């Protein structure tokens, strides 16, 4: 009887491990190379399928290559994916996507989320990495602005994120945008690894 119970427990544990591996395999790994170092991200395809597909499309098109982190606020977030080194806004974006912020993921340190305007479904290419616990950005309800969709997290290179979050910023003399890094923080490439 004890031997049968032991075998049943082993089978259940193996099944649980297999399910966890299958779940993990549905996630997407991204390698983002910047002039400050490499950031690796895990994107949650199950939790934010529209958002992850959108990000992958931009990555595969090379859209992010040569863009900059254009908005850096220490203890809040670093934002990129929409401006060139010269300060030009990249407007050749795909259509706006459905906001998936109601996926129960939280804007915690090290997570990546989509940037948007006041329109809840206005996200295109821009994203930000949280460098503070920004739970106030989470989805509350669909009547109060939806919140910001978390769709992944940094798995390696948080040291690079921390370097970026601490760079001096200025008002960009060409665009008038605040919190623009004094030194260009360039996204050299974004690659889907798996």
Summarize the structure.
The protein is of the alpha+beta class and 194 residues long.
Keywords:
Cyclophilin, 28% strand, 194 residues, two-stranded antiparallel ribbon, 8-stranded antiparallel β-barrel, alpha+beta
Strand order of the largest sheet: 1-2-7-5-6-4-3-10
CATH architecture: Beta Barrel
Total helices: the number is: 3
Q: What is the helix/strand order?
A: HEEHEEEEEHEEE
Distance between the termini: 45 Å
Summed over residues and divided by their number, the pLDDT gives a mean of 90
CATH class, please?
A: Mainly Beta
User: What is the gyration radius calculated from CA atoms?
Assistant: 19 Å
Largest sheet: 8 strands, antiparallel, barrel
Taking pLDDT < 50 over at least 5 consecutive residues as the criterion, the unreliable ranges are 17-24
Report on this model:
The protein is of the alpha+beta class and 194 residues long. It has one domain: Cyclophilin (Beta Barrel), CATH 2.40.100. The chain is built from 3 helices and 10 strands; from the N terminus they run αββαβββββαβββ. It has helices at 2-25, 49-61, 158-165; strands at residues 28-34, 37-43, 67-73, 77-84, 111-114, 127-130, 150-156, 169-170, 180-181, 186-192. The strands form 2 sheets. It has an 8-stranded antiparallel barrel with strand order 1-2-7-5-6-4-3-10. It has a two-stranded antiparallel ribbon with strand order 8-9. A hairpin with a 2-residue loop joins strand 1 and strand 2 (37-43). The longest helix has 24 residues, at 2-25. The protein is globular and about 65 Å long. The termini are far apart. The relative contact order is 0.23. The model is unreliable at 17-24 (pLDDT under 50).
């Amino acid at each position: 009887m004890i031997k049968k119970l032991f075998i049943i427990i082993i089978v259940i544990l193996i099944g649980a491990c297999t399910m966890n591996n299958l779940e993990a395999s549905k996630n997407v790994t991204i390698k983002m190379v910047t002039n400050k170092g490499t950031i690796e991200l895990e994107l949650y395809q199950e939790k934010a399928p529209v958002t992850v597909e959108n990000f992958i499309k931009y990555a595969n098109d090379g859209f992010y290559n040569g863009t900059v982190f254009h908005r850096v606020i220490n203890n809040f977030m670093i934002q990129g994916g929409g401006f060139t080194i010269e300060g030009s806004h990249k407007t050749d974006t795909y259509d706006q996507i459905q906001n998936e912020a109601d996926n129960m993921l939280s804007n915690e340190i090290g997570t990546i989320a989509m940037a948007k305007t006041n329109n809840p479904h206005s996200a295109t290419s821009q994203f930000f990495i949280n460098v503070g616990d920004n739970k106030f950005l989470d989805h509350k309800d669909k009547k109060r602005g939806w919140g910001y969709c978390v769709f992944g997290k940094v798995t390696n290179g948080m040291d690079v994120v921390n370097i970026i979050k601490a760079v001096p910023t200025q008002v960009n003399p060409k665009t008038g945008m605040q919190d623009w890094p004094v030194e260009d923080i360039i996204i050299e490439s974004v690659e889907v690894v798996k």
